[in-house]
Structure formats: structure tokens, C-alpha cells
Amino acid sequence: MKIIIDTTENVAKRAAQLYVDLLSRNPQAVLGGATGSTPIPLYKELIKLNKEGVISFKDAKSFNLDEYVGLEGTHDQSYRYFMNDNLFNHIDIKMENTHVPSGIDISEPEKYDAEIQAAGGIDMQLLGIGVDGHIGFNEPGTPWDSLTHVVELEQNTREVNARFFNSIDEVPTHAVTMGIKTVMNARSIILIATGSSKAEIVKKFIEGPVTTEVPASILQLHPFVTVFLDHEAAALLEKQA
Ligand code: GLP
């Protein structure tokens, strides 16, 4: 794993540079998207670079990590809505080339993996991390060989995400998420973690053992992972890059 520690602002800029590099090498790249508050500064940077003509998404495709079960894409807390609102509506990607798992038709979630494969596989998957180490919505205990599947959300995850809803009762109890194997199949991975609330889990997933109890720890075994941390999130690391 390559670890990059910088200011919160520079983290977004430096991560955006990886998109510039990838899309100039391969304009048809397949991008793996993530939601949450962490990627917002990166998305703002990508929108800016797109408007400036530095980067184009017109031939790119995207596959998002996850979606809440039961929320239509028009619901303002659905991850489809989030992606349209924070990125897709503001860049030149073709909407039909953007994919978010359906939270409504959850009958055959692993079909999503087949769609990813048919598109040639993900070139660069973006990840955030939950305070319990989840990536996508792969909570502790998720098997390493999991493909896209439906999960029951941990109470803690629902509490953390309740800030976006009117009350915790409105937070869905289930989600559909790419599995750990789906994520590990990506040719390269970027994980961004910012803020002091992530410091403990950052230390665990980077310096601790590879264990299903810390889903993000599996990334230690992937050959092309870049972890971007701000100083707050990196504070507890033994080795400061
Ligand atoms: C959610 C998402 C994850 C995300 C995590 C952290 O649960 N499913 O993909 O990484 O929250 O969110 P944040 O970036 O807001 O801390």
C-alpha cells in the first residue's frame, strides 16, 4: 500500500491527479465510485478539472459501490441521487454509462458483478472507510470471497449515517453492496480517509492484522492501493510517511 499524508485540501487534489493520469492514458476507463462525506472534496476537484478541460469523462464508465435497500434513485438520501447531485450532473459523463446498484430490485445482486465484468472490470475503485472498518457496506465479518450482496446494516453504521436523515428510524436497515471480492477485483484502488474520527480505524487497517473483523485490512494484500490521509486521520500511525 502506498500511503500519502497531506492536508485535507491537498488530499483531494492529489487523488484527483490519479483520475487525470488514468483518463489521459485510457479515456474509456471504468471508475468505481463511492459515497459519504469523504469523497465530496475530490468530486468538487474533478468537476473543476472537467470544466477547465483538463479531464474528460465522456467515454468513461462508472460503477458505484453500494445503495440503500428500499430507496428509489429519486430519494434524496439514495446513493444514486448523491452521485448525480455531487458529480454526474456536473461532468461530461454519459448518464447511461453510470451504474449504481438498485436498492429496489434486489433479487439477483450478483448480476452487478457480471455487468462490471462485461464492461471490462474496474480500473480504479474509490473507497472511503466506516469507523468500524467497513468498505462499501461490507461490515465486519463479511467473507473475503463475497460478491455484490444484500447486507443488514450494523446499528452503529445506521447511527453514524442518521445525520443525513430526519431520524434514525428513516435510515434503511439493509443495503446492497459490492462484495470484498468485487472490490479486490479492481485493478487499482484509492482509499481516502480524513478527520480525527477515522484515526483509530486507519491505524488498525494499515498496521493491524488482515482480518475479516476489519474489512479494509484486506487491502494490505492488493498490489495497487493508494491510501490518502489527512494529518488528523494519520495521527495514530506509527510510520508517518
Ligand atoms: C457509508 C458508505 C461508505 C463510506 C462510509 C464513510 O457507510 N457506505 O462507502 O465509506 O459511509 O462515510 P464518510 O465518508 O461520510 O465518513
List keywords for this structure.
241 residues; alpha/beta; Rossmann fold; seven-stranded parallel beta sheet; three-stranded antiparallel beta sheet; 7 helices; 10 strands; binds 2-amino-2-deoxy-6-O-phosphono-alpha-D-glucopyranose
Structure notes:
With 241 residues, the chain is α/β, with parallel strands linked by helices. Helix 2 links the parallel strand 2 (30-33) and strand 3 (61-64). It contains seven helices and ten strands. The chain has a single domain (2-230), classed as 3-Layer(aba) Sandwich (Rossmann fold), CATH 3.40.50. The mean pLDDT is 97. 2-amino-2-deoxy-6-O-phosphono-alpha-D-glucopyranose is lined by residues 34-38, 65-66, 128-130, 136-137, 157, 161.
- Widest sheet: strand order? 1-10-9-6-2-3-5
What fold name stands as the CATH topology? Rossmann fold
Number of domains: 1
Q: Are any ligands bound, and if so which?
A: 2-amino-2-deoxy-6-O-phosphono-alpha-D-glucopyranose
Rg calculated over all Cα atoms: 17 Å
Judging by the overall fold, what is the CATH architecture? 3-Layer(aba) Sandwich
Task: Tell me the overall shape.
Answer: globular
CATH class: Alpha Beta
- From N to C, what is the helix and strand string? EHEHEEHEHEEHEHEHE
The separation of the N and C termini measures: 12 Å
Q: Uncertain segments of ≥5 residues (pLDDT<50)?
A: none
Q: Mind summarizing the main beta sheet?
A: 7 strands, parallel
| Alpha-beta classification | alpha/beta
Helix share bin: 25-40%
Number of helices: 7
* Overall pLDDT metric: 97
Tell me the β content.
15-25%
Q: Tell how many strands the DSSP assignment holds.
A: 10
